Predict the structure.
Amino acid sequence: MISPWDVLGSVLPIYLLLVAGSVLRWTGVLSKGLDEGVMRVVYTIMLPAFMLDKILGSEALRSGSVVLGSIALGFGLMLAGTAIGMGVGRVIGLERGTGMRTFGLASGCQNFGFTAVPVVQILWSTSALAILFVHNIGCELAMWTVGVMVMSAERGIPWRRMVNGPVIAVLGGLLLVALGWDVHCTGPARRALSMIGVGAIPLAVLITGCTIADLVAAERPSTKIILGSSLVRLVLAPLVFLAAAKYLPIATELRQVLVVQASMPAAVTPIMLARMYGGRTAIAAQIVVFTTGLSLFSLPWIITLGCRWIGLHPLLP
């Protein structure tokens, strides 16, 4: 039987990387001018290589129902989280023009990328990691369709945002797996692919720590925003995710992914959407900073209780 301390001990290195990034920013070792170049390399080269390497050979992805179910749940659960966020935003007194849309999207959208990936990798198998990448296509689709409409109050959808390195890597990997050609992707080229991708997540988490350090001093915190977003992201949304993992007829690997997704803090992308579409950037920034900090304490309990309730057994040391 796992305990919260087992989970905390396993995922603590991720939080230490975030802290290290913050310290490197505060001390001036990693300046803001480096972020864009580093993340461009990570997002366009290293991360796609890492994702493709994990998808090739995944037996779980040979099932079309698993692939479609993962994408559908990624899309549907992010919409459910946003709906909960909008409801709580109204309860705490926010309205259109005072940050309700930004609050709803920022508090309702979980981190499905650089923080989720290492947690899944530590707690579960490579098959679960491959499922996470497919699940994330649904999350990306929800973010750049419904998320944009929520933030902008318009109906235009920037479809070009969906054409990026990670999505292309996942779709390409799925095609190779479906055709059975992935079994031939071996040898020096495959090892080179693995070597390119191996540093993607640690480097991205380090830069995320730098970003959080920038956000900490960006705006004076609001008590109702902090409490409201913590309720959405760390209590109400996790209940929905865990219920889906418990009761829906889905693959074990997808249940494992949903347990980790239930424990995640707020995603960083809504900050960018707020900047692009006239939202309240300060509200999104507060939500990311405080839910990320609080998740150090909530994540071990959510994962532990979720695993016990659903009957999952993480691969802990």
Q: What stands out?
A: The chain has a mean pLDDT of 90. DSSP finds 13 helices and no strands in the chain. Residues 4-310 form a domain with the Na+/H+ antiporter like fold fold (CATH 1.20.1530.20). Residues 25 and 210 are 5 Å apart (CA to CA).
